[in-house]
Amino acid sequence: MPAVIMILIFSIFPLIVSLILALSRTRLRSGGYQIRYVGLQNFEKQLFGSEQFHFLGTFKTVSAVGWLVAATAAALLIWWMYSYIRGNNLTVLGLIGRLITASLLFGLAMLFAATLFSGTQFGTLGVTLFYVIVGCSVQFVIGLGLAFVCSQPIRGRSFFRVVFFLPLMVTPIGIGFGFRMLADTTKGPFSPLWKLVGLGDFAWASDPWAARVFIIIGDSWQWIPFIFVILLAALENVPRDLVEAGHVDGASNWQIFREITWPQIVPVAATVMLIRVIEAFKLVDLPNIMTSGGPGIATESMTLHAFFAWRALDFSQSAAVSYLLLFVTVVLCVSYFNLIVLRRRAVHG
Amino acid sequence: MTLASPNAAAGNGTVRRGFFEPSRIGELSPGGKLVVYSILLIWSAFVLFPLYWIVITSFKLPISVNSGPAYIPWVDFMPSLHAWRDLFDTSPQSPLAETLKPYRNSVIVASFSTLLCVLVGSMAAYALARMEYKPKFGTILLFVLILIGMVVLVGVGGVDWRIAVAVGLALFVLLARALSRYFKRRIGNGDILFWMISQRILPPVVTVVPIYMMFQSVQLLDTHLALILTYTVVNLPIVVWLMHDFFAGIPIDLEESAELDGASKLTVFYEIVLPLARAGLAATTLLVLILSWNEYVLALFLSTTNAQTMPILVAAMNGGEKGILWWSMCVVIIIMIIPVILMALLLQRFISKGVLLGAVKG
To answer: Which of A232, A234, B279, B325 is positioned for an S-S bond with A268, CB 3.0–4.6 A?
Structure first.
């Protein structure tokens, strides 16, 4: 099993080293590093200390909306745990897993409540989650819509299929620069349009929300094709006679989609989203090129945060940030896999 | 997928139908057609416009870029080949003088790592699909523990790494023998597969600093080999994941009869299984190739001048006192897209429609 050995060397080993780095303070010396064990100090710095504004965001007293969001999240999670405990297939592992998931979700809800809904800026963790949640949902909806449209009996389907697939082949760096050209409000192709609506000297990259949306647009441009291609294949695999039988029975198009097509493509859709979410957590090149993480830290994803720390030769902080990212990613992705993908597969086989 | 001919629809035009009512099952109503085609055209425009803009910018003179938007060659601006000529101009003044070397690096790194990755990954996938592994849970735990101990000893304790490895291996063999009857829980192929896939969840930035230090300690930093090895490992999970499902879909009878005829396992793999899984292999290769061709983060950490790959070069054009040379940048982006598209066309005939689907369904 050479593959297992290679992965062992290149993932387990670095993971351990990374952990050591995250738990210590490194200092560059001539010809080597000085590594000193400092325990959880690095994590403390990120979560509660001087780097808190950067990682978690600026906290303010939680507003009414914030409390409302947090309370809703807590209520939903408690209800979810309760119904699981009352259910018949209770296992210790399942309970522990769900507890971890629930507490992480609650923590994230509190985070959003204390930053976003209280009107202050949020840190790289919030930005990353924003990219993952908003970006992936937008991409899924558009990708599914396009796949559905393309699965209709139309002419030139293979032409559209090739065209829609193109963006996936462009290097993300190229996309970043390309979109920077397009977004230029004075020299870009849309500048007459911007002048028309009175935004002649508006710069996308100077407003936090505009910059985030801008990055999501670039990301979507690249990744919608991926979702599109796979969902199109799934849609074409739906047996024709089922759909036709539905038509004969007088079902409306929407009913046919919901009752026949959707259940057939759900397993594929769940897996595609898993792949997409995993990749979305690693988003780094687009923010780096398009906005360099700015304005301020408004578009900095966690990977970029770790990279900036590394560039400043602060290996320990970099490792600490990456470990926090790893923790969030693993809990969310494994929960998603266990709770949604596996269940879908079990139901639809 | 056959397309219904328009004549067939015209044939039953005697019955009056609503604008949104299909004339036949399996065909679109005129209104539906309008909606569908407008969506398709709008999206094509959205996809193609940035590409079009990149292409025409590469033919623009600096003045045409800086004086505001110019859309159509020969009408709004005079196209010129100046940026493309820079590509072959090796004098130090040329902004693209250094382009061809990273390009060669990229070609070397992407092709070798893809090759290695697909080779190793498909063998691993085949093994997981056909043979049963039942390693004991305890043994693996022991191995990881000893590994952690070794790293701590070398990193913090300052023990020579050769001694640490030797002691660790010896300890592992001894303890595994001695303790093996206490280990009851075994893990199966499914667990190994899931573990491999879960490696993909790992954000590269978590592992890249240690990998950087590792290559630094063996003096391999900024070489092709470092990048090839790293890319191979990063993309292995995808290959194993996709290829496992393709192999599982191949009927086992063929392989069994070949083995009865005296073929070795390797012969069976190369002569029978691989050709059968050709479509999947092509799709996987293409995907891995695209991923490693465009990889940015790892290359950023692991290469500086010698092994610098194209994405780094493109990103590096950001700075400079002259601002971004958009026209040169666009040339570079275009020469980066071309080989991928060529590969896609080359491999396309192997990829039938349902290939990616079968893989994702699992």
So the answer is: A234
- Interatomic CA distance for residues B147 and B62, integer angstroms: 57
Check if the beta carbon of residue A179 is closer than 8 Å to that of residue A218: yes
Exposure pattern of B106-115 as b/e (b: 16+ CB <10 Å)?
A: beebbbbbbe
pLDDT at residue B186, rounded to an integer? 62
* Among A78-82, A345-349, B131-135, B228-232, the least confident range: A345-349
Cβ–Cβ gap B155/A35 under 8 Å: yes
Read off the pLDDT of each residue in A258-284 and give the average, rounded to a whole number: 82
CA angle B168, B170, B176 (to 5 degrees): 95
Asked if B144's CB is within 8 angstroms of A174's CB, the reply is: no
The SS3 of residue B143 is: helix
* DSSP symbol at B105: H
Best of A177, A185, A291 to substitute, by most chain B Cβ atoms within 10 angstroms, is: A177
Which residue from A163, A267, A289 is facing B318, i.e. has the nearest CB? A289
Q: Check: CB of residue A6 under 8 Å from CB of residue B237.
A: no
- Note whether B209 contacts A322, CB cutoff 8 Å: yes
Convert the pLDDT of each residue in A203-234 to its tens digit: 666 777 888 888 888 889 888 988 888 888 77
Contact state of A322 with B310 under an 8 Å Cβ cutoff? no
Chain B partners within 8 Å of A37 (Cβ)? 156
The whole-angstrom distance between A119's CA and the closest CA on chain B is: 30
Q: What is the pLDDT of residues A156-196, one digit of tens each?
A: 777 787 788 888 888 888 888 888 888 776 677 777 777 77
Identify the structural domains of chain B with CATH numbers, from first to last: 27-80 (no CATH), 100-133+200-361 (1.10.3720.10), 135-186 (no CATH)
Chain A residues with CB under 8 Å of B337 CB are: 169-171, 174
- Please name the amino acid found at residue A215: I
Beta-carbon pairs below 8 A across chains A and B: 272
Alpha carbon distance B61, A186 (integer Å): 18
Which has more confidence, B181 or A30? B181
Which residues, 6 or more positions from A175, have their beta carbon under 8 angstroms from its beta carbon?
A167, A218, A221, A222, A286, B50
- Comparing CB atoms, the residue among B3, B27, B207 nearest residue A14 is B207
Partner-chain residue, chosen from B120, B210, B296, that has the shortest CB–CB distance to A285: B296
Which chain B residue lies closest to A344 (C-alpha atoms)? B361
Q: Could you report the per-residue pLDDT of B174-214, keeping only the tens digit for each?
A: 776 666 666 666 666 667 777 777 777 777 777 777 777 77
Cβ within 8 Å, pair A13-B69: no
Please name the helix (run of DSSP H) or strand (run of DSSP E) that holds residue A117, with its range, or none.
none
Residue B114: predicted pLDDT: 92
Where are chain A's structural domains?
A: 60-120, 121-348
CATH class of A121-348: mainly alpha
Residue B322: phi, psi to the nearest 5? -85, 5
The helix/strand/coil state of A33 is strand
| Nearest CA among B105, B20, B61, B50 for reference residue B305 | B105
CA separation, residue A55 to residues A112, A124, A312, B224, B331 (Å): 13, 5, 16, 35, 38
In chain B, whose CA is at the least distance from the CA of A345? B361
Question: Does the beta-carbon distance from B202 to A189 stay under 8 Å?
Answer: no
Where do runs of H (alpha helix) occur along chain A?
2-7, 13-22, 41-47, 52-55, 64-86, 92-114, 124-130, 136-150, 157-165, 172-183, 191-196, 208-236, 240-248, 253-256, 262-281, 285-290, 302-311, 315-336, 342-348
